[in-house]
Design goal:
The protein is mostly helical and 86 residues long. It contains four helices and no strands. The longest helix has 21 residues. The radius of gyration is 15 Å and the shape is globular.
Length: 86
């Protein structure tokens, strides 16, 4: 979802650390994305999966925030690695 939001280039959505977006605002946006996804999964009526515990939700949210905060760096790394193949 974060990648999709970033691709819209909507300046009102602070999903990428830049000259105009503070890292804290990006982290808050990323945390909101993570919590929305967790809430959606927990509210699904699927009997085959259990709801996340509070600890699991916190770990997932932390990982999502970490990846979103490093998205530019990770994208550059991926481009370098893919460019070296072949």
């Amino acid at each position: 979802e974060a990648l999709m939001l970033r691709s819209t280039n909507n300046p009102s959505i602070e999903i990428d650390v830049s000259n105009t977006s503070e890292p804290l605002q990006v982290a808050i946006t990323a945390g909101g994305i993570a919590m929305n996804a967790i809430d959606k999964r927990n509210s699904d009526k699927d009997d085959t999966s259990e709801k996340f515990t509070m600890e699991e939700s916190q770990v997932i949210s932390g990982r999502v925030v970490g990846v979103v905060m490093r998205m530019r760096e990770l994208e550059e790394l991926l481009v370098r690695r893919v460019g070296g193949v072949g």
